[in-house]
Design goal:
This protein is an alpha/beta fold. The protein has 4 helices and 5 strands. The relative contact order is 0.19. The mean pLDDT is 97.
Length: 111
């Protein structure tokens, strides 16, 4: 897993690449929570290059979203690949976390 950071205004964009599973979820969660604790309240997870997410990765998504909400912020999933979107749908996460088909829509959903 690789995470690349960028910004669009007040929105921190975290481009997550490769796999988010039990071996990488801890580092991912630490990165997201560190960003939120560091003052980034609006976060988009750009999942265009994320090709797999496990239950550990889903838990990390949820942990980040809850922490962002507790800081009056928001975490939005953007551009999920088909297989990742299917996992989000099957597990019910698409009803819990905001998901946008494009990066632009995800950034707008943070406002």
């Amino acid at each position: 897993m690789t995470i690349v950071e960028s910004r669009q205004g007040d929105v921190l964009i975290l481009k997550v690449k490769d796999r988010l599973d039990s071996t990488t979820a801890g580092a991912f969660e630490k990165h997201v929570t560190g960003a939120i604790e560091g003052g980034s309240r609006l976060i988009v997870l750009d999942c265009a290059e994320l090709n797999y997410v496990s239950s550990a990765g889903l838990r990390a998504f949820l942990t980040g979203a809850k922490l962002a909400k507790s800081k009056q912020g928001r975490l939005v999933i953007g551009c999920p690949q088909v297989q990742v979107k299917e996992i989000l749908d099957m597990t019910g996460f698409s009803g819990i976390l905001p998901i946008s088909a494009t990066l632009e829509a995800a950034v707008a959903a943070c406002s």
